Amino acid sequence: MSNNLLNTVSQKRIALFATLLCILILTFFVFNTPIFHSHDLSEYETIKKNCSGKQLVLFWTKFFETDDFYVGLGIKPFKQCTVFACCSTNNRNFLDVSDAIIFHIRDLDLNDMPPRRSVRQRWIFYLQESPLHTPNILYDLSNVFNWTMTFRMDSDIYTPYPVVESTPGSALELQIWNTTFNRNKLKHNVRRKKKLVAWFVSNCFTTSGREKYVLELQKYVEVDIYGTCGNLTCSHSDHIECYKMLERDYKFYLAFENSICKDYVTEKFFNALLFNVVPVVYGGANYHALAPKNSYIDVRDFSSVHHLVKYLKFLARNDSAYLHYFDWRKTPPGLSLLPRTNQGWCTLCSMLNNDSLPSHSYSNIHSWWFEKGQCEKDRTSIQKLAI
């Protein structure tokens, strides 16, 4: 074989080797470097600029139908926090540079987990529904999550259901949050209330059995039921207007939970407090630890429905006794005792900016959530009360 032919073959081999090497290198970068489409570039540059120097929080899943967990993106979730050096995004191209990844378990697809994780990242278990309404996927998630972010008070980041929020400076903000307590005005409004009990409800058959208690309650007193479980509707497109109607017309609101679980209290309880109506509660939480003193009535404090009704009618006839349920609003903490939307997010930002926190993970998140959630799975309690 001539030297020219040998040189030609060698050159072809070298060219083929170089081509294969380039393909390997390109393959590595394709699978390990974020791919930005043209429409993503401006968003990428914006996030990179606005979040520079801040702890970056990535929403990996949706929170039901929203992409921003109802708190917003960028600095919005943290701008009212004492420690506010945090920023949020739902752009998965930022996976490798994010400091925290948040997973809403109700929207989590096990086939859509991040392909990799950084050793410095905190992966966060996020839930606001009770264990009785949680998908049974947690056995597959042991040693995955570093922090929990739920309504449970033993969570790493306690995130209770918040009250109705308002835009700063809006009429609602001035009416509710920035108004000094006025007992005379409240007394006047109380005298205008002509109805006794209301209930907003759409889940008509629950594990808590609350509907059984209401059926018994209706034997003694009229209960106006709004929603799919009753014959009344609140036609306002803005649910705030429905609470204003509740405040104007009713003295009591049934804040009965659909699940009886540890610390599980939903926003309707807190909203009743915000809108000057006395909530009547049935749930598994320690309300003394969650709510202002003498701000609610617990059905568990009464031996029967009949005894509860007797007390409600007494309060309805005695304005001074009824008004004592609003004394907590006069105290210096006042409305600040109620949970706000940014409460858990501020805690998260503070923790992300604290380098002294030890690293840990939940070796059995299934046990922590389901077993320590302490849910009543039968209707025994309500059956004893509804007599």
TrEMBL record:
Membrane topology label: Single-pass type II membrane protein
GO cellular component terms given for this protein: Golgi cisterna membrane
A Gene Ontology molecular function term of the record: alpha-(1->3)-fucosyltransferase activity
Alphabetical list of InterPro entries matching this protein: Glyco_tran_10_C, Glyco_tran_10_N, Glyco_trans_10, GT10-like_C_sf
EC top class, as a word: transferase
Family indicated by similarity: Belongs to the glycosyltransferase 10 family.
UniProt name for this protein: Fucosyltransferase
Pathway given in the UniProt record: Protein modification; protein glycosylation
Superkingdom of origin: Eukaryota
Fucosyltransferase N-terminal domain: residues covered: 54-161
